[in-house]
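Write out a sequence, fold above all:
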Amino acid sequence: MNEDSYKSKFNCEDRLKILADKTRLAVVRCLMGGPKSVADINHKLHLEQSLLSHHLKTLREAGLVVAERRGKSVTYQLSKSVALQNDVIDLSCCTLSFQEVEEKNHVGGHSAT
């Protein structure tokens, strides 16, 4: 299945549901830095191999990531259908920003102490 086939199979709602899983979202965030081998992703996220493989398969089937075999290892990267700019990914239907947000406790418009 090519990337265009994935676009028609998975609509925006489907893709957002897939990214609602914190592990899959962590994998996508990891790949925002560029292509990585399964070992590199696993080193960063500390997941069991079978669990990581399951999440990568789900992301691949949704057309969010693509895999390329390099010798004995497999390298994953964000697919062309996921535009990346700084800390923002564009899914065509919406954008997701991963910029750090400073959290403040406010009560009635004033900072809580």
User: Anything to note?
Assistant: The domain at 3-96 is CATH 1.10.10.10 (Arc Repressor Mutant, subunit A).
